[in-house]
Amino acid sequence: MLTRIDHIGIACFDLDRTVEFYRATYGFEVFHSEVNEEQGVREAMLKINDTGDGGASYLQLLEPTREDSTVAKWLAKNGEGVHHIAFGTADVDGDAAAIAGKGVRVLYDEPRRGSMGSRITFLHPKDCGGVLTELVTSADPSAH
Ligand code: CMX
Ligand code: CO
Question: Which of 2, 68, 76, 100 would you call most buried, defined as having the most Cβ atoms within 10 angstroms of its Cβ?
Answer without folding.
Answer: 2
